Request: fold
Amino acid sequence: MLSNIVAGQKVHEQYGGVVPELASRAHQQHIVPVVDAAIKEAGIKKEDISAVAFTRGPGLLGSLLVGVSFAKSFGMALDIPLIEVNHMQAHILAHFIKNDEEKYPQFPFLCLTVSGGHTQIVLVRDYFDMEILGQTKDDAAGEAFDKAAKLLGLPYPGGPLVDKHAKNGDPKKFEFPIASVGEYDFSFSGLKTSLLYFLKNNLEINPKFIDENLDDICASYQDTIIRTLFNKLVKAARQYGVKDVTIAGGVSANSQLRSELEKVGQKEGWNTFIPPFQFCTDNGGMIAIAGYYKYLEQDFVGQDIVPSARLKF
Reply:
């Protein structure tokens, strides 16, 4: 990895969540400076590039349009091939970016992919032979974190702040429900509703309830999400006889999720893999590694390619 430049979007903070129209406009503003910075940091010229890999989906359509349009223009100008990448597959393939330990998961392995928009257990048989064993039926785990933060009065993005407060709290202080859905599927909408009414009822009794119990609320709520995820992950690993288990996606930066993977992994006899922080949240590096493996197969697309907000595996 020669360079991996990421541009944040602070414009969403005042709204407490991502605004699609503002996101696409921010993409337009940032994409040329970011690509320019990435090329310069890599110490190369744009003429040295062999192909352009880009996210086709899933994601916000306006933002995808910006990226796809730029990639097509860049590829046409340099007369180099285009490579479409599935965003969720790229999160998983981030594990194959060269690292100091040269330690990579072996096929087949399981990946718990947890982000703001997706929560999936994926059986990975090869670089692009992946099967979703289970996924959320409604809200993603990342969304459940951000919604909780908003209810607790924490600023956006709230997931990392819930994690921060949880470190000082008692995860057993309050009890929240774990939804019972399909064999490997998840549901977090009920958990969010439970927290809403839990806070409402307690605030009616004590207006300072959140201030006085913030750390414990965060710890108990986060622990419920983590237990929900690992209950299904352990079940899948045992069912499929898989010993290499990984996590990926933005929520894989969560400290309890990372420590729980190592703890459960020791108990279950897993080989566990956790991506570096820079490859957890959305980034160009993970798209590049997915593009690399497609490049080896000469898996290119034409200029007629269009983005897909709900792209499947």
In short: Residues 10-91+281-296 form a domain with the Nucleotidyltransferase; domain 5 fold (CATH 3.30.420.40). The mean pLDDT is 94.
